[in-house]
UniProtKB/TrEMBL annotation:
InterPro entries assigned to the protein according to its UniProt record, in alphabetical order: Kinase-like_dom_sf, LRK10/LRL21-25-like, Prot_kinase_dom, Protein_kinase_ATP_BS, Ser/Thr_kinase_AS
Domain Protein kinase: 32-306
Protein's recorded name: LOW QUALITY PROTEIN: PR5-like receptor kinase
Membrane topology: Single-pass type I membrane protein
Organism: Gossypium hirsutum
Localization of this protein: Membrane
Length: 317
């Protein structure tokens, strides 16, 4: 069965669960002939658009050459099963021969990465207050916990990183981009993988090396931990893969020293407390052995607490 027939069969099987289907002509009209580009990735490009009822949307147009249909089907299958304040809403899709597009609710603040890297070209790094970062970390944790525990089918995301967290006008975070996700039965904890999936710097050790345990929802927990460290330190984890310092070890060393990690920025006692707590939680999340990592349910319990109530995690290896 060729790709097109496979996807068509998949859409029919989905029946009423599938979001609204649009023609390619409707998509072009919706995004005003590709005039307002929001971003670009390996998968294709994202454009700002408007539905006939006036709602703003983001339309992800998938590359014809890069997409074999699996990413497209993953995204439609996974996200159609979700309904949560911290998961982006899929409003529709287009599948017309080689033309494939996904239509999402529009998120006015864009992706989280724009707000956390100190090296940002327009130096937006840490414009966000610590309380806002704390709320964002908690919202992402709630979204992930929902994917792991709240759906009838457990969804493993496999690409949690700041670029895939979108922010609405109130900085409420929503997890997006389910192109690499896997669906698995609730009772089944370990999934089989053919080849590593994810982004360098965020991929859990067991995805590469089976001696560290099976690939499971704990692999998303690892990615979440790396992302929260990144939010605290303002360091691009993907880029820092090439540097000599292993970022988690460096940050662990600073945990007992002054927590002034951010370019000599003065922080208050309350902000220092938030920082220490976020670091302690994320260091638990990135433990090498997946069995030592907390579930996202446990992370949600840890985040509202104080640093005093948290046991300090072992040093990362």
């Amino acid at each position: 069965m060729n790709d097109n027939a496979r996807i068509e069969a998949f859409i029919i099987k989905f029946g009423s669960f599938a979001p609204k289907r649009y023609s390619y002509g409707e998509i072009k009209k919706m995004i005003n002939k590709f005039n307002d580009k929001l971003g670009q990735g390996g998968f294709g490009s994202v454009y700002k658009g408007k539905l006939p009822d006036g709602r703003l949307v983001a339309v992800k147009s998938l590359n014809e050459t890069k997409s074999n249909g699996e990413d497209f089907m993953n995204e439609v299958a996974s996200i159609s099963r979700t309904s949560h304040v911290n998961i982006v809403t899929l409003l529709g899709f287009c599948f017309e021969r080689s033309k494939r597009a996904l239509i999402y609710e529009f998120m006015p603040k864009g992706s989280l990465d724009k707000f956390i890297y100190s090296q940002g070209t327009d130096n937006q790094g840490h414009q966000l207050e610590w309380k806002t970062l704390d709320d964002i970390a908690f919202g992402i944790a709630r979204g992930l916990e929902y994917l792991h525990q709240g759906c009838n089918t457990r969804i493993l995301h496999f690409d949690i990183k700041p670029h895939n967290v979108l922010l609405d006008e109130n900085f409420c975070p929503k997890i997006s981009d389910f192109g690499l996700s896997k669906l698995c039965k609730r009772k089944k904890s370990v999934v089989s993988m053919t080849g590593a999936r994810g982004t360098a710097g965020y991929i859990a050790p067991e995805v590469f090396f089976s001696k560290f345990g099976g690939v499971s929802h704990k692999s998303d927990v690892y990615s979440y931990g790396m992302m929260v460290l990144e939010m605290v330190g303002g360091i691009d984890v993907e880029a820092s893969q090439t540097s000599e310092i292993y970022f988690p070890s460096w940050i662990y060393k600073h945990l007992d020293q002054s927590m002034n990690l951010n370019l000599n920025e003065e922080i208050t006692g309350e902000e220092e407390e938030i920082t220490r707590k976020l670091i302690a939680v994320s260091l638990w999340c990135i433990q090498t052995n997946s069995l030592d990592r907390p579930s996202m349910t446990r992370v949600i319990d840890m985040l509202p607490g104080s640093i005093q109530s948290l046991e300090l995690p072992p040093r990362p290896t």
